[in-house]
């Protein structure tokens, strides 16, 4: 997620001003990906029932139950109800640093600062709850700024999930924090969770600081 180059290290306090910029989350102009037509849970269950490969995919998504009532909770409107619960920084040998996405206000999230030791391997993990319907193609988008300049953009595919009674946890690929005096300092982050239908399930600001040590 964190890429060079970085501006020289700064020592001023964090600026928690608004960095909300839709341009940071625009898709690539040459992207050929087009999401499929949205379907209800019932339609997914009935879709191409004779296709073994599709049946295996539906089983992984919806579970092995043959009836809709036994497989997942539903709503009369077949809408998807997603709650983002946690964003966490995971480093081997250290307790996770957890941000409560469900319990904190936008203002409180904007005041949240992760400390990352330079050069350390870490990963981001998210926890969310799909309460009804099917969540299709959830993506995590992240824009990192320093001194008002965008220095990194990240897009991580979280996946597609049917409603489940228990929260879902997804870990992203490990990353290595940059090291050196030029990398140290404060960074502001704008994060967004959006699905294939363009529904933004969560959008928030937070921050991190790269330090020489913990």
Automatic annotation (TrEMBL):
Question: Which InterPro entries does UniProt cross-reference here?
Answer: Ig_E-set (IPR014756), Rho_GDI (IPR000406), RhoGDI_dom_sf (IPR024792)
What protein am I looking at? Rho GDP-dissociation inhibitor
Q: Where in the cell is it found?
A: Cytoplasm
Q: Which family does it belong to?
A: Belongs to the Rho GDI family.
Instruction: Tell me yes or no: is Flavoprotein among this UniProt entry's keywords.
Output: no
Q: Name one GO biological process term.
A: Rho protein signal transduction
Question: Which Gene3D superfamilies does the UniProt record give?
Answer: Coagulation Factor XIII, subunit A, domain 1
Keyword terms: Cytoplasm, GTPase activation
Recorded GO cellular component terms are: cytosol; membrane
Does the record bear Cytoplasm in its keywords? yes
């Amino acid at each position: 997620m964190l890429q060079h180059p970085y501006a020289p290290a700064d020592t001023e306090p964090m600026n928690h001003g608004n960095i909300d910029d839709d341009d940071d989350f625009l898709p690539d102009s040459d992207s050929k990906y087009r999401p499929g037509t949205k379907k209800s849970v019932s339609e997914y269950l009935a879709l191409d029932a004779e296709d073994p490969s599709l049946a295996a995919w539906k089983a992984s998504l919806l579970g092995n139950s043959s009836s809709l009532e036994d497989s997942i909770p539903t709503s009369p409107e077949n809408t998807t109800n997603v709650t983002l619960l946690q964003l966490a920084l995971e480093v081997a040998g250290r307790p996770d640093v957890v941000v409560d996405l469900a319990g904190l206000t936008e203002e409180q999230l904007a005041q949240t600062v992760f400390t990352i030791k330079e050069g350390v391997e870490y990963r981001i993990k998210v926890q969310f709850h799909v309460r009804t319907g099917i969540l299709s193609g959830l993506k995590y988008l992240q824009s990192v700024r320093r001194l008002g300049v965008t220095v990194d953009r990240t897009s991580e595919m979280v996946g597609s999930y049917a409603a489940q009674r228990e929260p879902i946890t997804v870990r992203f690929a490990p990353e290595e924090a940059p090291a050196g005096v030029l990398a140290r300092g404060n960074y502001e982050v704008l994060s967004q969770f959006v699905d294939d239908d363009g529904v933004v399930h969560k959008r928030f600001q937070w921050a991190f600081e790269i330090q020489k040590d913990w």
